[in-house]
Design brief:
The complex is a heterodimer of chains A (319) and B (248).
Chain A (H helix, E strand, L loop, with lengths): L2 E5 L1 E2 L2 E2 L1 H17 L3 E6 L6 H4 L4 E5 L9 H15 L3 E4 L3 H14 L2 E6 L5 E2 L2 E7 L4 E7 L4 E5 L14 E4 L10 E7 L11 E5 L10 H10 L2 E4 L1 H5 L20 E5 L5 H7 L4 E6 L6 H4 L2 E4 L2 H18 L1
Parallel strand pairs in A: 1-4, 1-6, 4-5, 5-12, 6-11, 7-11, 14-15, 14-16, 16-17, 17-18
Antiparallel strand pairs in A: 2-3, 8-9, 9-10
Helix pairs in contact in A: 3-4, 5-9
Chain B lengths: L1 E5 L2 E3 L7 E2 L4 E2 L6 E3 L1 H16 L3 E7 L5 H10 L3 E5 L6 H15 L3 E5 L10 H9 L2 E12 L2 E8 L2 E7 L3 E5 L14 H9 L2 E4 L8 E7 L8 E2 L5 H11 L4
Parallel strand pairs in B: 1-6, 1-8, 6-7, 7-13, 8-12, 9-12
Antiparallel strand pairs in B: 2-5, 3-4, 9-10, 10-11
Helix pairs in contact in B: 2-5, 3-4
Classes of the chains: A alpha/beta (319), B alpha/beta (248).
The structure holds flavin-adenine dinucleotide.
Chain lengths: 319, 248
């Protein structure tokens, strides 16, 4: 009967999203008067999941599963859901989780709601709130099947400590044909990625050229943030496409989004609306971004940003 | 190679989002509908296959008659024929089940759909379609090459990209990168004239019940005005981010 949650790990260590979905699963399990079971694939130490409310961990260890495969992982989750007789299955909104979720929905014949931002307002009928229209609205959705599948939006619930025992149990599901095989992975390492970042520092065409990105990177460094940019900036080749944020780029659901020299066109805002606190630095007081922002400085980025870096360094040193 | 491109008919990004009937229905009044941006990249990639390697390209939409201008636009861009499954797209599963029937009957090698539609942003249909038709599936696809029976795809992952190999039958959840935005096609006069003569088949839906229901919509609470900070007083921003917003 327990709520089942997929906890992603990388090189044996759980990702932050894993702990967030575990926290969320615990809240849902409390509502339903049941426990949380996590599936952990090739994770080393699973005890930390207890801290975030997981009662039982199904540990799958198999070197064939070292690289993510949506088909195989969905099948493993389906077998775990059957074993645990789970009525609710929860995944994150990472690229991998949103890849496997629709396959899992078919496998379990489960109604699926993605981009969910809150705990269910009711569990019978099972009713969740999700974003729609590229964050311009919310959609209250009921899931009417016996088994329900939910993908939780990033940073929507946060981490909640909730001590439980997290008893580990080995689980050896059958592994299906992969169908899709990974040939090579090209990943930025040692840098905070937009997907994982709690803070994102983003620059637009107002920065004039790639040679001026040093201060954006320095600001990101001080804050432990990821760097991002507007579309024209990546189109001009000043920054890589992977940093392009917006409707045709990456979505950002950060706690803090700092936009420097970005006008705030609707297509850009579509990608960052889900971020909690927005700061804008722009010379033009009429820039549309000021309407979407929480805090704003009307000023020249080349003067404001270096000052901000200095102030933040002092602030961090005092912490 | 037989290609099917799934076309979602969505409100243009700049549309005002409003709801009617007690906030239960999307208000289409004055809204301009377009081909879903993620699908447009896929459609252009399909045209390249057609022109460079030889392929037939059909487009499909699940929806009412109001979506036909969007399908005609896809024909004007160069698709050979269009299919509309005549039913309301009530949820991802319903759409995927209709598409699965089209795919099975049509014997397609490659189905290109968009990573998500910009209306409900579900990101469900391509994966469900792959699951229902037992096809291979590559999501967030930003590059796709076909060489005989071998398919090489690049997909975006958190913090980078990965290259995968796979084979037909295959469903793609595509996005920008499949082609560049500057390569997207705009229908020309000749295309528009030709599109009028191309077949647009209307199919009856197969039986499928929605497994989820959108019971109500809400708009985000109106945002308070921006707090402006003097450019000479950057200290104040640090203070507010720490003490008021509590994000640093
Ligand atoms: C279909 C479609 C999809 C799109 N998708 C996206 C998307 O995903 N993401 C995206 O970002 N855009 C997207 N766009 C483009 C979008 O409409 C805007 O053109 C783009 O966001 C503008 O980028 P920008 O603000 O960096 O540049 P600009 O519009 O050139 O604005 C630069 C800003 O910098 C300010 N500035 C100049 N100098 C300084 C200075 N010294 N200090 C501080 N401020 C300064 C200016 O006042 C101005 O506000 C899309 C457009 C279309 C049509």
């Amino acid at each position: 009967m327990s709520v089942l949650v997929y906890t992603e790990s990388e090189q044996g260590t759980f990702k932050k999203v894993a702990l967030e979905v575990a926290s969320y699963a615990k809240a849902v399990a409390n509502q339903m008067g049941t426990t949380v079971t996590a599936v952990a694939i090739n994770a080393d130490d699973t005890s930390i999941l207890g801290t975030y409310g997981v009662d039982k961990v199904l540990k799958v260890n198999d070197s064939k599963l070292d690289k993510f495969n949506a088909n195989a992982y969905a099948s493993i989750m389906a077998q775990a859901a059957q074993k645990e007789d789970s009525q609710v299955v929860i995944v994150s909104s990472s690229a991998d989780s949103k890849y496997l979720a629709p396959l899992l929905a078919v496998n379990l014949n489960a109604g699926y709601a993605s981009n969910v931002v809150e705990v269910p307002s009711s569990t019978a009928p099972f009713t969740v709130k999700r974003t729609a229209f590229t964050n311009k609205a919310f959609n209250i959705t009921t899931i009417n099947t016996d088994v329900k599948l939910v993908a939780l939006s990033k940073n929507a619930f946060g981490l909640v400590e909730n001590s439980a025992a997290a008893a580990a149990e080995d689980f050896s599901p059958s592994i299906p044909e992969f169908g899709v095989n990974v040939e090579s992975v090209d990943k930025v390492t040692g840098k905070v990625t937009i997907a994982d970042a709690e803070i994102v520092v983003s620059g637009g065409r107002g920065l004039k050229g790639p040679e001026n990105w040093g201060m954006v990177e320095e600001l990101a460094d001080v804050l432990g943030a990821a760097t991002a940019c507007s579309k024209p900036v990546s189109d001009l080749g000043w920054r890589p496409h992977s940093e392009h944020v917006g409707q045709t780029g990456k979505p950002v659901a950060a706690n803090l989004y700092i936009a420097i020299g970005i006008s705030g066109a609707i297509q850009h805002l579509a990608g960052i609306n889900a971020s909690k606190v927005k700061v804008v630095i722009n010379t033009d007081p009429e820039a549309p971004f000021f309407k979407a922002a929480d805090y704003g400085i009307v000023g020249d980025a080349f003067e404001v940003v270096p000052k901000l870096i200095e102030k933040l360094k002092t602030f961090k040193a005092q912490q | 190679m037989k290609i099917l491109v799934c076309i979602s008919h969505v409100p243009d990004t700049t549309s005002k989002i409003n709801f009617t009937e007690g906030d239960t229905k999307f208000d289409t009044n004055g809204v301009q509908f377009v081909i879903n941006p993620n699908d447009e990249f896929g459609l252009t990639r399909a045209m390249w296959f057609k022109e460079k390697q030889g392929a037939s390209v059909d487009v499909v939409n699940v929806g009412g008659p109001e979506t036909e201008p969007t399908l005609r636009k896809a024909l004007a861009i160069g698709a050979d024929s269009a299919i509309r499954v005549n039913t309301e797209a009530t949820d991802g599963f319903v759409v995927a089940k209709q598409l699965a029937k089209v795919v099975q009957d049509g014997g397609y090698d490659l189905v290109i759909a968009g990573r998500e539609s910009i209306d409900y942003n579900g990101g469900m249909v391509p994966g469900m379609l792959a699951g229902l038709t037992n096809a291979n599936f590559v999501n967030t696809c930003i590059g796709l090459e076909v060489d005989g029976t071998t398919v090489t795809a690049t997909r975006e992952i958190d913090g980078g990209k990965e290259t995968v190999s796979t084979s037909f039958p295959l469903v793609i959840g595509g996005q920008k990168g499949l082609v560049e935005e500057s390569d997207l096609r705009i229908p020309n006069m000749r295309g528009i004239m030709m599109a009028r003569k191309k077949p647009l088949t209307v199919l009856d839906p197969v039986e499928a019940t929605a497994e989820t229901a959108a019971v109500k919509f809400e708009k985000p609470a109106p945002k308070g005005a921006v707090t402006l900070i003097d450019a000479d007083n950057v200290d104040e921003l640090v203070n507010l981010l720490h003490n008021e917003a509590k994000v640093i």
